[in-house]
Specification:
The complex is a heterodimer of chains A (408) and B (327). Chain A is built from 15 helices and no strands. Chain A is an all-alpha fold. Chain A has a single domain, classed as Formate dehydrogenase/DMSO reductase domain (Formate dehydrogenase/DMSO reductase fold). By secondary structure, chain B is an alpha+beta fold. Chain B has a four-stranded mixed beta sheet, with helices on one face. Chain B has a two-stranded parallel sheet with strand order 1-8. In chain B, strands 3-4 form a two-stranded antiparallel sheet. Classes of the chains: A mainly alpha (408), B alpha+beta (327).
Chain lengths: 408, 327
């Protein structure tokens, strides 16, 4: 799969050929997710035709499964920082080899989060109203406008970094550290930025006491690092097993360390928030009460946050005790538990109690409909397809399978 | 002050002099060029070889709506075209001929609203009148006003009954708290909107450009008064019940996917009439008028009665006052 042209065109055609000449397992995997994507797209067409009434949402619960996935995935995207900082700022050479995979995960996650906003809006054909010059982006007053800006910038920046690094690998060059550094610093700042802005979007609303908490942004970052580290451990182990990629011990121990500390911090933050939200009977207590007691609330959300807490407690014990952590299978189980727990807790476990009771004190109910689940799976399919193809490209270039002929 | 709250004669004359135009915002020529370019490209694409004139009226309207600019950036002709499209669409959607205007704010008017809680008996006539006047969908029974039935001796909203259905009102041991958009001076919803699709007009009403709203519902999460409603589907309105006198920023028929809210019946109030809820109230609990007119009833209430603003601590400066009769 060697290209004769060492420029971008050579790289792209070599990568396309590399995608095409893939083992049948890979093609089967991709075909399966393309099928899910088409099926989910059918659900979206249904939603376009009938409006958001095909969802379980109403005027009490205006956001649900889509925005729950959005907040979670922005966190996964932000978590690329836990590889970029050690690799480039702290000079952990071992980590550099997986940075591109981490950035690929960030690209897939931020794409999914933008898509989740897109499927959530009532008038997707008007999205150009948010474009600079053409539309009227309400920047800087609206925090949602901020979120659109930083998420788009983060997507562009990571795509550029991955392409530049891939091209260098394809040409067999090493990039100078100094030239790369401004982009790396920007990626780190934006990584923290996207998740902070997403938290501010909710915590900046005095009308919603459950969200209106200063610990929300720090909690987002800590839980994102936990879920991100967990997801990377899972993905890297899978790639280690299924592809030519080899996972080094240093990377595993770094990610395990990040997972452990982040989980402890997120648990501590949850406890702090729970205390303020439940001691003293104020507007802050109402949502917390139904959320944890289940009385007069939305039962599946209560079950979700309780189950998430249980998973987090088990996971944190596993990753903290060396005897358990060193067993590969248990570490994978703890990673999976963390990812699921954060998805539950920062997804609907965060969105629904922010909305219920309404500012007029009324309770409501919510359960995602089949169409909503179908569309969400379609969006996940986009992310999985994107990550898989990017991972195949990255591994191909890094293993030297995809490389330009050298003239020397 | 029988039927008028405002210097309506002068106001109407001023309005007709200024025609249908709205105060224009400074506009960037670069943006306009881009938009024109996009419009041209759109027409070319939609025309697909044949002339755009060959399209059906409804297709041309769909294209026109898609490319329509923000209300406050359209020039006079663009607004006239938009209003004509709205009228044709109502004809197609509902089979009813409507008139859609866009009367601008009247100089020297700032609307204020007060509600006397000692008089409200919870009939919810205001709710019904609002729904009818504003062409609100009848399918979910929700309108721009929510009347809460409260137990005596508390202001705790979490103890309110939102769906009370007794044989007769008022019930013993309860009082009634109607809540609608408080037309805040510093509205959290306006700040939240990512595309400037909602704003506060110079005469104080917080309005939505239904043709610009992208339907993200962030404003609904930001409002402390739960005063914004989303069109989850195309509103269902019986044909005979469409109110044909409409305003671009007010009660013109909406479609699915956009937010809507109370506009103080902009289509009525800018012509010197009272909002429908005010007119429908059987106990005279509602007081509406021009805050800048020293002789208006609203000014009398604010100067002589004990008033209270709901959730004032949210810092949004509501222009809606609750009044309680003194002993």
């Amino acid at each position: 799969m060697n290209g004769t042209d060492s420029g971008e065109r050579g790289l792209f055609s070599a990568l396309l050929v590399h995608q095409w000449r893939s083992p049948w397992q890979y093609r089967f995997w991709m075909a399966g997710w393309i099928a899910v994507l088409i099926w989910g797209g059918g659900g979206w067409i249904d939603q376009l035709r009938h409006g958001l009434s095909v969802t379980g949402l109403d005027n009490r619960v205006v956001w649900g499964l889509y925005i729950g996935n959005f907040t979670f995935l922005v966190g996964v995207a932000a978590a690329a920082v836990i590889l970029v900082v050690p690799a480039y700022l702290m000079e952990y050479r071992q980590v550099r080899k997986v940075t591109l995979l981490g950035e690929s995960l960030a690209i897939a996650a931020v794409t999914m989060s933008l898509l989740f906003v897109f499927v959530d809006i009532g008038r997707p054909e008007r999205i150009w109203h948010a474009l600079p010059l053409l539309g009227s982006l309400h920047f800087p007053a609206s925090i949602l406008a901020w979120d659109m800006v930083v998420l788009s910038l983060y997507l562009l920046l990571n795509t550029a970094i991955v392409l530049v690094l891939l091209r260098a690998g394809y040409r067999g060059e090493t990039l100078s550290h100094r030239r790369l550094m401004p982009w790396i610093v920007a990626a780190v700042v934006l990584g923290i930025g996207i998740h902070t802005v997403t938290a501010f979007m909710l915590s900046g609303l005095p009308a919603r006491p459950y969200w209106n908490s200063a610990v929300l942004a720090p909690r987002f970052i800590a839980s994102a690092f936990a879920a991100g580290a967990g997801m990377m451990l899972l993905l890297f182990h899978l790639l280690n097993r299924l592809s030519a990629f080899s996972l080094e011990k240093g990377v595993v121990s770094l990610l395990t360390g990040v997972l452990t500390f982040s989980l402890w911090i997120t648990l501590y933050q949850q406890a702090s928030e729970l205390f303020v939200h439940s001691y003293g009977a104020t507007v802050h207590t109402v949502a917390t009460q139904w959320l944890w007691s289940g009385e007069g609330g939305v039962a599946f959300v209560t079950d979700s946050v309780r189950f998430a807490l249980l998973l987090e407690l088990v996971a944190v014990v596993v990753v903290t005790l060396p005897g358990l952590r060193r067993r590969g299978g248990l570490l994978m189980a703890a990673s999976l538990m963390t990812v699921i727990a954060i998805w539950l807790e920062k997804g609907m476990g965060l969105v629904i109690p922010g909305l219920l009771p309404t500012p007029l004190g009324e309770m409501g109910d919510y359960a995602p409909t089949f169409t909503e689940i179908r569309i969400s799976l379609g969006v996940w399919a986009v992310g999985i397809l994107l990550f898989s193809s990017l991972a195949r490209a990255v591994i191909g270039v890094e293993q030297g399978t995809v490389r330009a002929f050298s003239d020397a | 002050m029988e039927n008028d709250y405002a210097p309506s004669k002068e106001g109407e004359r001023a309005a007709s002099k200024s025609g249908n135009s709205v105060p224009k915002q400074p506009d960037s020529p670069q943006r306009r060029r881009l938009l024109k370019g996009a419009a041209a490209a759109g027409v070319v694409v939609a025309g697909a070889g044949s002339a755009a004139a060959g399209l059906s009226q409804s297709s041309r309207d769909a294209l026109g709506s898609f490319l329509q600019d923000h209300y406050r950036r359209m020039d006079r002709q663009e607004i006239q075209e938009a209003l004509a499209r709205i009228e044709r669409r109502a004809e197609r959607d509902h089979g009813v001929a409507i008139r859609c205007g866009n009367q601008p704010p009247i100089a020297g008017v700032a609307f204020g609203y007060a509600l006397n809680l000692s008089r409200c008996t919870g009939t919810r006539r205001c709710v019904d009148a609002c729904i009818r006047e504003n062409n609100t969908g009848r399918h979910d029974g929700l309108g721009n006003i929510r009347v809460l039935s409260m137990p005596d001796n508390t202001w705790d909203l979490s103890r309110a009954d939102h769906h009370y259905q007794p044989e007769t009102v008022p019930e013993k041991g309860r009082w009634y708290l109607p809540v609608q958009c408080q037309q805040c001076g510093d509205p959290a919803c306006v700040q939240a909107c990512p595309v400037e699709a909602t704003w506060r007009e110079p005469d104080g009403m917080v309005v939505v450009d239904y043709d610009w709203c992208i339907g993200c519902r962030y404003c609904a999460t930001a409002c402390p008064y739960w005063a914004r409603r989303f069109n989850w589907r195309d509103p269902v309105i019986p044909k005979g019940e469409i109110t044909p006198d409409t305003h671009y920023l007010g009660n013109r028929p909406r479609r699915r996917g956009v937010m809507e809210k109370c506009t103080l019946c902009v289509q009525r109030s800018r012509r010197g009439s009272y909002p429908a809820c005010h007119q429908a109230c059987p106990t005279g609990a509602r007081i509406f008028g021009n805050l800048l007119d020293a002789d208006s009833p609203i000014r009398y209430v604010l100067e002589h009665k004990r008033v209270y603003r709901l959730k004032e601590e949210q810092g949004t400066d509501p222009q809606f006052w609750y009044v309680v009769d003194g002993p």
